[in-house]
Amino acid sequence: MVNQNPIYVEIPIRAEMDDLWKASQNPDRHEQWDLRFSSITYQPKSHEEDPQEFTYKTNVGLGLSVAGWGRSKGTHDGKDGSRTSSLHFGTDQKISIITEGRGYWKYIPKSDKEMTFLTQYDYQTRFGTPGTWIDKLFFRPMIGWATALSFDVLKRWLEKGVEPKTQHMQFFAYWVLSFFFSFVWIYHGLIPKVLYRHPEEIALAESLLPFSVSAGSVVVCMGIAEILFGLTWWFIKRRRWLYYLQVFAFPVLTVSAIVADPSTLTHPFSPLTFNSGLFLLSVLGLAVSRDVPTAKNCKRKRKESA
């Protein structure tokens, strides 16, 4: 049996208690910032003190979705002014690895307009031992990351007034562009330079080198440098510097290619149009890379008591 740790996420938020409570307890507002749910629908209650029952749906792509049920109960009787919302949830759909789970949200006031918002939850899985390992290696890290990212989106919504939809678009645009540029640099370093040493690459190097040296060796070195730069997109934290570098580099590379061989302006894939497109995408990446929502702003482990 594989032991699994509960998912825990905590974040400080500069907001009043009622604003945070409404943003997380009102289904129309909750579904806007929480990536784990595409829609949440509250069911009518017979009595005000009854637990709130609801249904939810999560779109997982390719036209598939997971629908489930939930039951929440909020309390306001914390001695420190805190509030707690307990949760019981599950789904009968066989495509979901989750069968049933429980957890809670806690709202802890630090001052009049500063809160600590945290959650802890756990669940049972389907598919026996294989399902347990899939959950441990893939699903649990993913759902924990989605929870933390959603909490940061909520924080920016309440603190800065940035709509969750805008934040989600910024986040995905930022990462799509980052993966795209990583692919472009690795591909153009590996295929035409390192593996095949394309004649046009060697001719370009020969025309630009001011001294006698093996153009083939220079092309390979350039290819390795491009591969390393492409890999940098996966590891560096401050990707804005990479965008700044590209905004400067692509015009220089374009002019160099045209000076080395003016006939490239008549090629089907001219460096003028190709690098211009990459330059504009770099400018776009620079614009969306400022203050991107991130799961790293959340604590992911409960502080152990002394």
UniProtKB/TrEMBL annotation:
Residue stretches spanning the membrane: 171-191, 211-234, 241-260, 272-292
Keywords: Membrane, Transmembrane, Transmembrane helix
Stored SUPFAM superfamilies: Bet v1-like (SSF55961)
InterPro entries on file: DoxX-like
Pfam families in the cross-refs: DoxX_3
Name of the protein in its database record: Membrane protein
Source species of the chain: Pontibacillus salipaludis
Gene symbol of the encoding locus: yndG
